[in-house]
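batch_manifest entry 22 of 60
target: Surface protein bspA-like (TvBspA-like-625)
source organism: Cladocopium goreaui
requested by: lab member K.T.
priority: normal
notes from requester: please return tokens only, no post-processing; we will run our own comparison against the previous entry in this batch. if the run fails, retry once and flag.
--- input ---
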Amino acid sequence: MPSLQAFHRWEDEITKILGIVEIIVDGKKLDDLKASASVAIPDGAKVQVVFYVKPAIECVSRCYQLLRIELSDVLTEIPIRAFDGCCELRDVAIPRSVKKIRDEAFAGCNSLTTLTIPSSVKEIGARVFKACSSLTALNLKASLTEIPAYAFARCICLTNFTIPESVQRIGEGAFSGCSSLKSLTIPESVVEIGNRAFDDCSSLTRLAIPDSVKYIGGGAFAGCSSLDRLTMPMSLTQLGYDAFAGCRSLTNLSIPGSVTYIGCTAFAGCIALTSLTIPDSVREIGPFAFRDCRSLTKLTIPASVKTIRHGAFDGCSALTHL
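--- output ---
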């Protein structure tokens, strides 16, 4: 049987863990926190922890039997890896006093199904909810300016998501591997979409990227295999490597007149693409940019294009007019 030693790593520094004011095992409150370190927890027992002030970093990380937590309304920050790997955690209410949720705070909490992040939260950390694989509903009220790297990566049951209008940047891999994500709204406040931000969001069917977006990173929408309709921003100047590679359902594409460079493998593997318009703003087409676009039959390359790199149209087996 496991014990509660995870809560009490430093006996002489027990005050660091006095954020835990109650430990309840199968409905029975443990009054002596210090002694509770040696208490055996029966298999399948329900463990409830109530925090009053900031808990020690990692003090309950990977507590596999933790089912529910209550956070006091005086708590202002949830620290790094606070509940990382608490795979049975199903219920958590984040109080309005919380302003910051640090890196990996709830990563791997794969029994968590719904979550509301209140408007008081101004910052969330990298990988904060990564691999919360049962999370189906997320109400993000927080006034964030950035969704950081891999914040919601591999939340494979998340079906729709509305990005707050305060967000300016979507970080690397922020929603990578969210394979059930069907609906996504990107607000006009967003100016940058990072590398692999929506990589392998294989259920996403339609996407409108607002004109506010000036940069789309490498592989940002790679592997979005159900994406059949795409509106790109008129402010975009470059399409990075792998930007839409493997978007196998995309049938037609109009590249904005602001784009000057189409990067390496930007549309490689877009096997359903039949129609393509390259504007006269484009100066260079990168290596393997349209590799294996095997349904593409006709293409006009404007005189503005000065450089076509090797393999740009390699595998475009149906292309008869160029």
